[in-house]
Specification:
InterPro entries: MFS_dom (IPR020846), MFS_sugar_transport-like (IPR005828), MFS_trans_sf (IPR036259), MFS_Trehalose_Transporter (IPR050549), Sugar_transporter_CS (IPR005829). This protein is an all-alpha fold. The chain is built from 26 helices and no strands. α1 packs antiparallel against α6 and α18 runs antiparallel to α24.
Length: 494
């Protein structure tokens, strides 16, 4: 295409992706909401509407339910998205996510007790579950090959941006203002869906709506109404060929599919690394950041410490997209899990001195230690254990289970996250923060051992080579490497 046409193509695709990325931001705001909201919900001084509270007080147990119920909505949203994607389409399913966010905000803003607040958290979690199932799928289907990677890397990074927005604004506004904070982002996403975002060309092609598919593709590639271009016509033909081949592909029975050692190993790796990810402690740190930092006695205000921690997380999330194809998946996982474990153990030492040994004098000299350790954790975690497992889904799983295993991983992720977020305040009240921190550190060691023995390196390998690695067939791998096609011609190159 000409330069002007290419510029219009970039702008058109970016605008369509922006509607999805805005929902990623609101998902992060749902994750980060409890940190500044915890004080407003649990402390009498903040419960007065004149000082910014909701007008009611929750005890620690009830407040932890409000925090944790966000995670129960994630699998509900994922299942709902799975049911709607093939029937209602990508665009209509996408429009439901901001509606859920706005409904959640309305309930939270008008809540007079914990019950509507709990429902609001579930609805916001459902939006996150839909986003997890939809964002990469829609962006992958509507973008050109040169834009796909750039836009997909923003999906996880903007979740952390949403968390940071809550940390920066939430502590300094009233409960009502904080409850309505995601509304502008959700509303803008909905407006973009209504006036600009086209349906996925792949969905339209699969439903036999070929003329609509071509119009949507032309719009995404920056062409004016009625314009034609050879590149767009060729891309449309490729989409039609792909959907026809997909329609003819025979469904393989589960018992035959999972009889393969490589398939079983790939599914196990994805389910373990993705499903147990909250046990590294990320979700708990995001939800209870201010609450934890207030207990350290540091001279640095808890809200400022939370902002610093989240800023580091955002920077690390952006950096991970730049290094994952250079350093490789397996090395990042190994280094990340080791650094995570060290950081959590070090942070736990402070709370062990103070809570278990009662040595407040020694602890008072190292109040900087928890924040420093958590800075290291946020960098290492976002460079590896938070990002790499979700990238490897497309590399380790056989085609026939790519619609099922990720959903099962989201379900496991939600159950573990809910349990961790519910139990953490209870453990803090009864034992001390050192126990959760050391538990998170111990699980990072488990991830290191699992990665060392089970996870292969997939960078730069074809899907056939990855399957050979999973099967443990080194002879087959050497043969494939010796007879590999030129990378430009290899359509299965990861």
């Amino acid at each position: 295409m000409a330069a002007a046409s290419s510029a219009r193509s970039v702008a058109s695709q970016s605008l369509a992706a922006f509607a999805v990325l805005l929902i990623n931001i609101t998902s992060g705001m749902g994750l980060g909401w409890p940190s500044p909201a915890w004080i407003k919900l649990t402390e009498p001084a903040a419960s007065d509407n004149h000082t910014g509270g909701p007008g009611f007080i929750l005890d620690v147990d009830e407040a932890s339910w409000v925090v944790a119920l966000y995670d129960t909505g994630i699998p509900l949203g994922s299942v709902l998205a799975g049911l709607l994607l093939s029937s209602a389409g990508r665009r209509r399913t996408l429009m439901l996510a901001p509606l859920l966010v706005m409904s959640s905000c309305a309930l939270a803003a008008t809540a007079s007790s914990s019950t509507p607040l709990k429902v609001a958290r579930v609805l916001h979690g459902m939006s996150f579950g839909m986003e997890m199932s939809l964002s990469s799928l829609y962006i992958g289907e509507m973008t050109s090959s040169d834009m796909r990677g750039k836009l997909c890397t923003f999906t996880s990074s903007l979740v952390f941006v949403g968390v940071l927005i809550e940390y920066i604004i939430g502590p300094y506004v009233s409960y009502l203002a904080q409850a309505l904070l995601p509304v502008p982002f959700a509303l803008l996403s909905l407006v973009l869906c209504l006036v600009w975002v086209p349906e996925s060309p792949y969905f339209l092609a699969a439903r036999g709506r070929h003329e609509e598919m071509h119009r949507a593709l032309a719009r995404l590639r920056g062409l004016r109404a009625g314009d034609r271009h050879p590149d767009v016509d060729g891309e449309a033909e490729e989409i039609l060929r792909f959907t026809e081949q997909d329609r003819r592909r025979k469904r393989i029975q589960w018992r035959h599919l999972l009889s393969s050692a490589g398939s079983r190993r790939g599914c196990l790796i994805v389910l373990f690394l993705c499903g147990t990810a909250p046990l590294t402690g990320t979700g708990c740190l995001l939800a209870y950041a201010e609450y934890m930092f207030r207990t350290t006695g540091s001279a640095l205000p808890s809200e400022i410490a939370a902002i610093i921690m989240s800023s580091v997380q955002v920077a690390a999330g952006v950096a991970s997209s730049q290094v994952i194809d250079r350093a490789g998946r397996r090395p990042l996982l190994l280094v990340s899990s080791l650094c995570n474990a060290g950081a959590m153990v070090v942070a736990g030492i402070f709370f062990f001195l103070r809570d278990a040994l009662g040595n407040n004098e020694a602890a008072s000299h190292i109040t900087w230690l928890p924040l420093a350790a958590l800075m290291v954790f946020m960098v290492s975690n976002n460079l590896g254990t938070t990002t790499v497992p979700w990238v490897m889904i497309g590399e380790l799983l056989p085609l026939q289970v790519k619609a099922f295993i990720p959903s099962l991983s989201v379900l496991g992720f939600s159950i573990v996250a809910f349990s961790a977020n519910k139990l953490l305040p209870v453990l803090v009240e009864r034992v001390g923060l050192f126990l959760p921190f050391w538990t998170f550190g111990a699980w990072s060691i488990v991830i290191f051992v699992f990665t060392f023995f089970m996870v292969p390196e997939t960078r730069g390998k074809t899907l056939l080579e990855v399957q050979a690695l999973l099967e443990g067939d080194k002879a087959k791998l050497r043969h494939q490497e010796a007879t590999a096609l030129d990378p430009e011609d290899n359509q299965e190159r990861c």
